[in-house]
Design a protein that fits this description.
globular
């Protein structure tokens, strides 16, 4: 799943600061009432109004009983959440709890004085949340609740949610095509290349147009597992962290060779030539469903997602089709891949909040098992059923109990994923959540997690700020130069790639690297 970029413009920041200073006198919200952002994902497929449904009624009733707090949910469109929250804050009437995936934007807001510091309340109003989070798995000896702490001042302006499932990407291939050609599932990039050549030349699916490999313009994501298999993983963690810019690994040793491999694929006619035109997944998805695509990469569970219907719709057209996930070994013969950091979306309280203490008490209330467990699985027979003692969510629950987001993550912003008594139970429940045999899901999950590890997490002397203003431009440029490099001739690949990297560095990547070098603190 891609991280959103929460852009907080200078004008909006200045407006927030001004309104913070003079107060929000027009706010008529009661002293025991909090306002919390909730994503509006529309009502297609039976979804409900995110501010008025059975789940909201349950939260309002139980929160009032337990904590004496009234809660009002403020909807923001999922597709434009960043701008919607900017508008609310700039208007001087922000929700008491907001959220974003972009830590750079939070750092910029904090630097301008626009956020509430939660550090004095960690062991009081947030003690249950601290216990639920436990130790940070990527920073031994440090509490997870302090992940976003300012190392210099000790201030905590945001709290990151905890991911249960850190599986990231998979590369999928048509096993029925491999079987017809008598080929095994590839385990190396060369075997993969050879299989795609066979797809191209022998057309095992007997389709009108064979597309051996498909992707969108966001190459670094769709082809991530392939590209990243070329990274030199002996590179010290410090150097990998410093040179990872805007969540992109272009500057890491070996990555360029991954791009060269993709260039070789393209020039051999193995990649859909229209990929730069695909601004989103839909064109690629349509070709996958039609049966023309032999391989592609995406989220670890993309073929099984009911919202995408890639596999199920393909079966309507090709009843004997079979997709499987695969891993490709790097140049040293070892499979290595990147998993998600266990940190997810970041929750923060604007400085202009009228009720920051109540907001923290709500976050703490959510961390109690009886509360988040009910919100995640609901009532047996209505929201879930038990299979061998493990809950399976009912996707089309009736009487207003449908979950607008998977496992109600929109209502449990302190966590991403289903948290049961043990991790094993949680993963089994995750598999049960799909309309496919659980073993298929577990196979894809295990493939995505094989030798997977998150990127280094480094404590810095002060929060990083350089990326905030330039990240959008770097992201746009990265798509352009990846597309251009892959479509270049083999003879011009180095020139195209090196020129683009120099421009990328000059656009702002170099400033980000220099800041990271200056603020790095050895573990």
């Amino acid at each position: 799943m891609k991280k959103g970029i929460f852009l907080f413009t200078l004008a909006a920041l200045l407006t927030v600061l001004m309104l913070t200073a003079i107060g929000c006198k027009g706010n008529a919200i009661g002293q025991n009432t909090i306002r919390v952002v909730i994503f509006d994902r529309g009502t297609d497929g039976g979804k409900t109004n995110p501010t008025n449904n059975k789940w909201v009624e349950w939260i309002q009733k139980k929160l009032l009983e337990d904590e004496g707090i009234n809660i009002i949910f403020i909807p923001v469109p999922r597709a434009t959440e960043e701008q919607a929250q900017i508008n609310l804050m700039a208007a001087g009437n922000p929700p008491d709890i907001c959220m974003t995936y972009d830590i750079n934007s939070i750092n910029n807001m904090a630097a301008q004085g626009g956020l509430f510091d939660m550090s004095p309340y960690i062991d009081t109003h947030l003690k249950d949340l601290k216990e639920f989070f436990g130790e940070d798995p990527t920073i031994p000896g440090r509490d997870f609740i302090l992940r976003n702490m300012n190392a210099k001042t000790g201030e905590v302006f945001s709290i990151t949610s905890k991911r249960m499932n850190t599986a990231r990407l998979n590369t999928f291939i048509r096993k029925d095509w491999l079987d017809k050609l008598g080929l095994p599932v590839p385990r190396t990039t060369q075997q993969f290349f050879d299989a795609l050549i066979a797809f191209r030349d022998r057309n095992p699916g007997r389709v009108d147009r064979v597309i051996p490999y498909s992707m969108t313009k966001d190459v670094r994501w769709g082809a991530g597992n392939i590209l990243e298999s070329f990274i030199n993983w002996t590179t010290p963690a410090k150097d990998r962290w410093i040179n990872t810019v805007a969540d992109r690994f272009f500057l890491l040793p070996g990555y360029k060779e991954g791009a060269r491999f993709m260039n070789r694929m393209y020039n051999a006619g193995l990649i859909d030539p229209d990929f730069p035109l695909y601004q989103n997944d839909e064109p690629m998805a349509n070709k996958i469903k039609s049966g023309n695509v032999g391989s592609f990469g995406h989220n670890w569970d993309q073929i099984f997602r009911d919202s995408e219907r890639l596999f199920s719709d393909l079966l309507k057209n090709v009843p004997d089709a079979e997709w499987v996930a695969m891993n490709l070994a790097g140049t040293d013969g070892t499979i290595r891949k990147i998993s998600y950091d266990p940190a997810g979306i970041n929750v923060f309280i604007p400085k202009a909040s009228k009720n920051p203490i109540l907001a923290m008490r709500y976050l703490n209330w959510l961390s109690k098992f009886e509360n988040y467990n009910y919100l995640q699985i609901g009532q047996e027979g209505i929201s879930h059923e038990l299979i061998d003692g493990i809950p399976r969510l009912i996707p089309n629950a009736t009487d207003g109990w449908i979950q607008n987001s998977s496992m109600n993550i929109d209502y449990t912003p302190i966590m991403n994923g289903l948290f049961l008594a043990t991790h094993e139970e949680s993963i089994r429940a995750l598999a049960n959540a799909y309309p496919w045999p659980a073993e298929r899901i577990l196979d894809a999950y295990n493939m995505a997690m094989e030798n997977a590890r998150p990127n280094p997490v480094i404590i810095t002397s002060t929060p990083l700020e350089a990326a905030g203003p330039v990240a959008p431009t770097l992201v746009t440029k990265s798509d352009e130069f990846m597309n251009n490099s892959i479509r270049a001739s083999a003879a011009t690949f180095d020139r195209v790639w090196d020129t683009a990297i120099t421009d990328w560095l000059n656009t702002g990547a170099r400033a980000i690297i220099e800041e990271r070098e200056a603020k790095y603190i050895a573990p």
